């Protein structure tokens, strides 16, 4: 039992690291997304459509991905989401029209649904129900710190580099996030090998 507690404590920290990197990688780019759309000739209404497509696609797939993560495990979807978004970030700098942005936003919604549902489900798997709220509060604190640092870092970096380079930097960070999920053995959680939940 003691070994189970140690293993889950370690997994919680790896999960937070991976998803903080995921948040950081996306956060470096997101504040300047409107600038990117304006640069390819888009306007505010097209920005709204692009963001709406992302949100609606993500919402529409959330229940299905939740069921899939129950069946197949959480970590594989976090890996696919991180690496899929990483590839999309590499494509953004070469798009030339708003329709291409719409397509990429739909794909981002697909991967976004994977990430959010699987992350929350895995967090629940790793925590004891009696202190789950406390842990999720700590978890969100860590992710919010990563998001805030990412926005500030992006503000400094965009003065030194182009927006395209921010996408490349975000892609690398997202790839590392997925690599952590791939290397760390989270599968035992879904398969029930660890019996006791712990808090971070």
Structure description:
By secondary structure, the chain is mainly alpha-helical. It is 82% helix and 0% strand. It has helices at residues 2-29, 33-39, 44-72, 75-91, 98-126, 132-160, 163-183, 187-190. Helix 1 packs antiparallel against helix 7 (163-183), helix 4 (75-91) packs antiparallel against helix 5 (98-126) and helix 4 runs antiparallel to helix 7 (163-183). Residues 191-200 have low confidence and may be disordered.
Topology readout:
Elements (H helix, E strand, L loop, with lengths): L1 H28 L3 H7 L4 H29 L2 H17 L6 H29 L5 H29 L2 H21 L3 H4 L10
Helix pairs in contact: 1-6, 1-7, 3-5, 4-5, 4-7
Helix content: over 70%
- Report the count of strand segments: 0
The number of helical segments is: 8
Largest sheet: none
Strand content: under 5%
* Average of the residue pLDDT scores: 84
Q: What would the principal axes of the Cα set say about the shape?
A: globular
SSE sequence, one letter per element: HHHHHHHH
User: What Rg do the Cα atoms give?
Assistant: 18 Å
Q: Which stretches are low in confidence, meaning pLDDT under 50 for 5 or more residues running?
A: 191-200
Span between N and C termini? 17 Å
User: What structural class do the secondary elements suggest?
Assistant: mainly alpha
Keywords:
disordered C terminus, 200 residues, 8 helices, globular
Task: Sum this structure up briefly.
With 200 residues, the protein is mostly helical. It contains 8 helices and no strands. The two termini are 17 Å apart.
């Amino acid at each position: 039992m003691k070994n189970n507690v140690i293993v889950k404590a370690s997994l919680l920290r790896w999960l937070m690291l991976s998803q903080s990197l995921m948040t950081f990688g996306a956060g470096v780019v997101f504040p300047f997304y409107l600038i990117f759309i304006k640069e390819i000739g888009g306007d505010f209404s097209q920005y709204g459509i692009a963001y709406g497509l992302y949100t609606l696609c993500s919402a529409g797939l959330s229940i299905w991905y939740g069921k899939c993560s129950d069946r197949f495990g959480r970590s594989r979807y976090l890996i696919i989401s991180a690496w899929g978004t990483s590839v999309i970030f590499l494509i953004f700098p070469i798009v030339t029209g708003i329709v291409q942005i719409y397509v990429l936003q739909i794909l981002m919604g697909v991967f976004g649904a994977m990430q959010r549902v699987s992350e929350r489900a895995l967090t629940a798997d790793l925590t004891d129900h009696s202190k789950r709220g406390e842990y999720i509060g700590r978890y969100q604190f860590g992710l919010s710190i990563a998001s805030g640092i990412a926005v500030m870092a992006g503000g400094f970096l965009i003065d030194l580099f182009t927006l395209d380079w921010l996408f490349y930097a975000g892609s690398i960070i997202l790839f590392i996030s997925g690599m952590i999920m791939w290397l760390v053995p989270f599968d035992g959680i879904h398969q029930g090998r660890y019996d006791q939940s712990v808090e971070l």
